[in-house]
Amino acid sequence: MNNTFSFNRFKDLLLKDGKMYFRNYGTSLIIWCCLNASFWIFNLIFGTSSEAVFRFGMLCVWMALAMMMVPSKVYGNANLSREGVGFAMLPVSSLEKFISMFLYCAIVTPIIVFFGGYLVDTLLSLFPLGGFEKPIHLYTMNEIVRLMNDTEGVVRAGELDLSIEQVFPIGVMRTSLYMGIIQWAAIFMLGNMLFKKHKTGATLGCYMGISYVLSTIFGAIMFANGERLEQWMKGLSNYPTGEIVRLWHNATIWGMILGIVITAVLLYFTYRKIKTQKY
Predict the structure, then answer these.
(1) pTM of the entire predicted model
(2) Helix, strand or coil for residue 156?
(3) Which of 36, 76, 172, 263 would bridge 183 by S-S if both were Cys, CB 3.0 to 4.6 A apart?
(4) What is the DSSP letter of 162?
């Protein structure tokens, strides 16, 4: 039954996990959604104000932090020898367990925290006090690109300046954004199944360590080939604009594909750990 899928079983599992989700993480969700209220209280006390763009950025931060913590709070017992027996004995397949975990960690949590926080922030912006002079504007990807271009957001290729949408197509930017959210959830889902203790902290530590090593290696390669890279960038000005745009398109698309592959690998190993976990 490890690889089978039954809609009726999955529906029952979703309901069961949903009850566990809100029981174990419901209070935390309310706190995450209300954290922007701390800026409103600070402004009210000290007579300051908070720009909508800043509050929007903080909503994204709260969403990321909530996604980091939810796997250990809701599914923290899944890989433990004693406490995880109940998870192991559920009359559902490993695939169904994985999909349910994925939905609550990667889909439900960011939606609740972001839009719940947006609702709280909007309500507070209605008050004449508290420094929330404007409600947060939920920008579309097209609006973000237009704003970046209005602030002289360009990418230099040799002597040529390319606009943002020439280098990063809207579809690629939108897909990369969504995949980045899912990848962030996948990192902590896998960490939750690998580590027995201090799951969130251990996962974050590994993530930062791996990121540091990779950035160091990449930086060393760039430094060693800096002169050659500079000459190549200058040489791009001799190419037709269409050719340069095509090169940038290919680079961004390959970067997006790499991100999708990494996310898929993280999710696969999470599923495999659920399937092969020994108790």
Answers:
(1) 0.89
(2) strand
(3) 263
(4) E
